[in-house]
User: Which sequence fits this backbone?
């Protein structure tokens, strides 16, 4: 996609510590990390935020819809453009690249994101 992690992309997590046995973080764990995440967002000031998976969507925006229903759609959150996308672990469990598959859908989403990023001036 021709993007650099040095100047175009910043990666952060809703949870700042991995829960035991890689389980989904509890609402209390997410709440404990939100101030740190909000400060990261404030400092980085991203044009676009990708919400990778349902935990990120719920934890940051409060949207409770399933990721398969809302992935690939733009959400306005605190004056920012956000797009829910599949979590990479989900894509690893679904290796097919056939049309309509999760990996195929993700590629469509990424092309939409890149077009918006370019439109906003990169």
Assistant:
């Amino acid at each position: 996609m021709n993007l650099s992690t040095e100047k175009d992309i910043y990666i952060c997590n809703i949870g700042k510590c991995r829960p035991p046995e890689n389980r989904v973080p509890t609402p209390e764990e997410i709440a404990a990390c939100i101030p740190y995440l909000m400060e990261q967002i404030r400092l980085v000031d991203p044009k676009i935020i990708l919400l990778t998976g349902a935990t990120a969507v719920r934890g940051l925006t409060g949207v409770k819809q399933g990721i398969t229903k809302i992935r690939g759609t733009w959400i306005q959150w605190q004056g920012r453009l956000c797009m829910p996308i599949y979590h990479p672990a989900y894509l690893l469990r679904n290796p097919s690249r056939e049309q309509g598959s999760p990996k195929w859908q993700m590629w469509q989403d990424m092309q939409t994101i890149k077009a918006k990023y370019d439109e906003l001036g990169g």
